[in-house]
Give the backbone structure.
Amino acid sequence: MLITILQFFASLSILVVLHECGHFFPAKWFKTKVEKFYLFFDPWFSLFKVQKGETEYGIGWLPLGGYVKIAGMIDESFDKEQMEGPPQPWEFRSKPAWQRLIIMLGGVTVNFILGVVLFSLIIFKWGDQFIVNESVTNGIYADSIGYEMGFRDGDKIKKIGNEDFIHFDHRKLKSGIIINEAREIVVERNNKEIKLPIDEKYVGILSKYANRNVSLVGPRIPAIIDSLGEGPALNAGFRKGDQIIAMNGSPTPFHNDLYKLVDNREGDKFELTALRGRDTITNSITLDENGKFGLYWKDPMSFLEVENKKYAFAESWKAGWKRSTGFIGDQIFAFGQMFSGKIKASESLGSVISIGKMFGKEWDWRRFWSMTAMLSLLLGFLNLLPIPALDGGHVMFLLWEVLTGRKPSDKVIEYATLAGFILLIGLMIYAFGLDISRHWPFGK
């Protein structure tokens, strides 16, 4: 839990500081006074603060973001006193519209650039790793939702919509259905290609929060023992290298065959038949209190062909750009799906709890930087939404001013910002409540 929290706050701090730098430096370039620069919010008091020149730098206690307070600007601080006096040359409101637009777009610009840079460097250092679909020679196994959709054990996936399924990735299968609107999957079954129609209802089913970890399908892997745990497994007479081929006389040559038969049967005794060289042996084994045999299977990846693609430094930037634009495109489409009612907003919303859990319980640098890259792009995208109190709301007013030559009144901006702020706080509370209901008691 501590490692998860540390990763989340480290990533959030990086994103907030760099986002606010995107506002801070353009403001300074245009000789606009910046009164505060804060990591996290500081209602009533701050954890740390120091005055350097005209700017107070500090760390707040409420980890919901951060801010720069720019003189002469209506923002979430709702400082009305400074707006009542005549405009001063160093204030935001005194600057030309194009300068104010650059200042407001600075934060999201940094977010987008950071996402591309991080993805490019991740790809350069670690490359890409794919399971070659052709190496899934035993076909797939289907979980309950996958079976309901029409998949069967032994199927070989050939196409998702019109796209060839070259790399075996269950996430690509789900995103193809949810994001890319694939309504037909081509599989090979008994040496014949058949088309599985995908009902639109599965967009809603697969996008449910409860189904976020559902795989739909996985590669069928032989059940070959790699090691044995304590208890029943150690005393059952099996050895490393034994291949389980039957249970209670029924053929079970793959992992998933075993799991289907032992589900919720802890304490029961089974007869497992295994191949050992040229010999066939049968031993009895009892499931432990967790419903497990205590047998540890050979790494599934050892049965599959894994393609490790490395990139030259120049190539990695093109791949990083492609991954970043693809991610943003998916977010835009997902928002469209929500507005059309195909995806429920309540199933997609999450608070800091959901985001934090995505970092994992172990510190993995590749995952940490990948999560930071995705959150940076997501932060940039969300901040561009035309909601007052977000950067996109300010940009909306500025574009109106540029296009019409008329500046909205300070009162209009003030009331709109207040309404947007209340909306955002409401969404945060709602998302937090959703996560409490999903994860309580915490640690489950």
